Amino acid sequence: MFTRKEVRGGKSWSFGGTPQMTSSLPNVNLSLRDLSACLSTTIESIVVAFNMPAYHSIFLEDRDVPVIGNFPILPLRTRTRGPAYTLPPLPNTDDLDVSPESESYDCVDEILSLFRANVLFRNFEINGPADRMLIYGTLFISECLGKVKPTMNSRDAEKALTNAALDNFAIPGDVSFPLNQAFEAPGDRQDAETLRQFIAQVRQEIAIRLHGRLYPGGVGPSKFWLSFTKRKFMGKSL
Question: InterPro entries, per this entry (predicted)?
Fold first, then answer.
């Protein structure tokens, strides 16, 4: 018996049941990479077959979040200096186990938890500013995965992810920003600089926490993450 809860648009959906084997499986020797690729393909087939909707941000419910243009400046659990309100650190809890009900749960936790489901979608309806944060973070994870090679050790991957986070990047309103049709430009230079600093905080937090998922216990990289390297959320890239 198993039960799993997922948060979709602020609502909890529970799935439970007792799996039953109806036929024996052939004795096939598959590598982890093959299994991961099969899993990715199977998930995509299920999503298409059942026309499942993409996951939206639970932070859409937070109406008092400041925005620059239409990009939200959400609180972060981070040690990186910047304009984001700093959430308290996790109380003896691993990043992988933080609950959406925790006061320390932030948009980076959400982006990472929803990435492998949402990255399969080419269309995504934006329901508010928090969804734009979800879009940007998902695209940045895809960029990060492209920097990590299957043969990389943990230290080399950490350097690659850090460099990706610190690289020059476009913000809404810049000519090279790929989503200007859905993201508004900042109103002035000061707002633009604040937005750039906030996005830099988000990028660095994503890089740090993604590394922990790619190399759990220092071993990796995880094939179950790298199998999504070539996926393009909304057909876009940063």
Answer: ARPC3 (IPR007204), ARPC3_sf (IPR036753)
CA distance 148 to 227: 11
Lookup: tokens for 227: 């199998």
The answer to whether residue 131 scores a pLDDT higher than 70 is: yes
Q: CATH topology for 31-235? A: Arp2/3 complex 21 kDa subunit ARPC3 (1.10.1760)
Between the alpha carbon of residue 18 and those of residues 28, 136, 138, the distances in Å are: 25, 37, 33
Burial of 139 (0-12, 13-18, 19+ CB in 10 A): buried
Question: Residue 91's pLDDT is what?
Answer: 84
Angle between helices 107-118 and 189-214 (to 10 degrees): 70
* Total-model pTM: 0.79
Residue 132 bridge partners (DSSP): none
Query: Per-residue pLDDT tens for 151-190?
Result: 999 999 999 999 999 999 999 999 999 999 999 999 999 9
Domain boundaries, the chain: 31-235
